[in-house]
Amino acid sequence: MKVLITAGPTREPLDPVRYLTNRSSGKMGYALAAAFADAGHHVLLVSGPTDIDIPPGIDFVPVETASEMHDAVRRHLFRMDAAIFAAAVADYRPATVAGEKIKKSGEELVLKLVRNPDILGEARDKMNFEGILVGFAAETENLEANARDKLKRKRCDLIVANDVSKPGIGFDSDRNELLLVFPEHTAALPEDEKHHLARHLVKEVELLAATRSGAFQAP
Ligand code: C5P
C-alpha cells in the first residue's frame, strides 16, 4: 500500500521569533511511519517540527504550519491507498504575522486567531479521497463518544483515540493507551510502547484495506 502519515505539531508564527505550538512530540506518527515501512509499505511522512530521526526508507515532507501541511496533503493524497492523520494540527493561527519582532507595550496584548483548514475533515469531501482514512482524537473527557462523533463527521474508517489527561502516556511519552473506534465496534489497546501499538495499527489498516478491496493487498 501507499500510505500517507501526518505527524508532529504545527508551528504557527506570530512574528520572526515567536510561534504558537502544542506538546505533540511526533512519536506516535513516526512509530507508525517506521512500522508501515517495516511491513513493506510505501510511506510518505508529512511532519511538523520534531526532534526525531527520520525513519529509513520513507519519503519525507517537512512542514511548519497547518497551511503547509494542508498543501502537502492536498498535493499527495490522491495517489494514496491509506492516510493516517496523527499530527496535532493547530486549530487556529495568528490572524497576522508581524514582519518585525513584536515590541512590548502596555499591560495587555490581545492576539487575534483565525481558523486553520481541517485537513482530515477535507479529505473525503474536498479532496475526494476514497482510500482508508484514519484520524486521531486526543481527548480529555468523553473519549469514546467524542471519537465516534469524529468518525462520522469526518467519514473515517477508524479513529484512534487517546486520553491525553492520563499521566505518563500520550503527549511526549514513549507509551500510549488507545481506543480504536470503528463504525461497527470499539477495541481497547492497553498501555504499551508506541512502537508496539504502531505495529498493531498497521495490521488493523491492512485488514481494513483487505476488507474494502475484497482481497488482501500486497505491499
Ligand atoms: O477534531 P480534532 O482536531 O480533534 O481531530 C483530530 C484529528 O484531525 C487528528 O487526526 C488530526 O491529525 C486531524 N486534524 C487535521 N487538521 C486540523 C485539525 C485536526 O487534520 N486542522
Q: Your description of this structure?
A:
The chain has helices at 27-38, 66-76, 119-125, 143-153, 194-213; strands at residues 2-7, 12-15, 18-20, 42-47, 59-62, 82-85, 92-94, 113-115, 132-139, 158-163, 175-181, 186-193. By secondary structure, it is an alpha/beta fold. The protein has a single domain (2-92, 110-213), classed as CoaB-like (Rossmann fold, 3-Layer(aba) Sandwich). The strands form three sheets. It has an eight-stranded mixed β-sheet with strand order 5-4-1-6-9-10-11-12, with helices on both faces. A two-stranded antiparallel sheet has the order 2-3. α1 crosses α5. Cytidine-5'-monophosphate is lined by residues 6, 66, 85, 87, 89, 91, 116-120, 135-137, 150.
